[in-house]
Amino acid sequence: MLFRSFYFRHMFFKCTSLFLGAGLLAAALMAPAKPLEKRIDFAKQIKPIFKNQCYDCHTTNHAKGGLDMSTKAGLTKGGDTGKLFKAGKSAQSLLIKRLKGQGGPRMPKGEDALKESQVKLISKWIDEGARM
Ligand code: HEC
């Protein structure tokens, strides 16, 4: 009798942990996976665009509109008008607006516009939190 109740209790715990395990596994598989490597990499994907298309007029010693895009401090501070972006809100960000020619001349000023894919990439970077 003693043996039997021990056996059942043992089986009960075994089944419970099996259920829990399966539940956790299912939850892990169904969770909206956002792998870190899929996130925009500022140094690799964003900075080169700024460097090629914006540094001509927006560096520390040559900051048109008061905007230095060559440093983290400068990007964080923004220009004469104010902050360059609102993390998570690309559409309302000065940076994206000016790339589209909203609220002032389109940037880069007097040069070819960025490709739509580049503007999208920068927007995504801002929406992901503009991490540098
Ligand atoms: C040929 C020079 C030139 C290039 C290249 C250039 N800009 Fe500008 N930018 C200016 C000038 C001049 C101003 C100030 C006058 C104005 O706001 O239009 C300015 C102002 C800005 C402002 C507004 C700053 C503020 O706070 O008022 C933003 C944002 C901006 N630029 C973004 C960019 C971005 C992003 C790039 C690269 C894709 C870029 N610019 C490339 C000349 C340039």
Descriptive labels:
132 residues; 2 domains; mainly alpha; two-stranded antiparallel ribbon; binds heme C; Cytochrome Bc1 Complex, Chain D, domain 2
Structural class: mainly alpha
Number of helices: 5
CATH class of the largest domain: Mainly Alpha
What sequence of helices (H) and strands (E) makes up the elements? Answer: HHEEHHH
Low-confidence stretches at least 5 residues in length (pLDDT < 50)? Answer: none
Shape: rod-shaped
Mean pLDDT: 87
Secondary-structure arrangement, i.e. CATH architecture of the largest domain:
Orthogonal Bundle
- Helix content, binned percent: 40-55%
Could you give a short account of the major beta sheet? Answer: 2 strands, antiparallel
Strand content: under 5%
The CATH topology of the largest domain turns out to be Cytochrome Bc1 Complex, Chain D, domain 2
Distance between the termini: 67 Å
Strands, count? 2
Bound molecules: heme C
Domain module tally: 2
What's the Cα radius of gyration? Answer: 26 Å
Strand numbers in spatial order across the main sheet: 1-2
What can you tell me about this protein's structure?
- The protein is mainly alpha-helical.
- It folds into 2 domains: 1-33; 37-127, Cytochrome Bc1 Complex, Chain D, domain 2 (Orthogonal Bundle).
- It is built from 5 helices and 2 strands, in the order H-H-E-E-H-H-H.
- The protein has helices spanning 2-30, 42-53, 72-77, 94-99, 116-127, and strands at residues 58-59, 62-63.
- A two-stranded antiparallel ribbon has the order 1-2.
- A hairpin with a 2-residue loop joins strand 1 (58-59) and strand 2.
- Helix 2 packs across helix 5 (116-127).
- The protein is rod-shaped and about 85 Å long.
- The chain starts with a helix and ends in a 5-residue tail after the last helix.
- The model has no long low-confidence stretch (mean pLDDT 87).
- The site of heme C (HEC) has 26 residues, from helix 4.
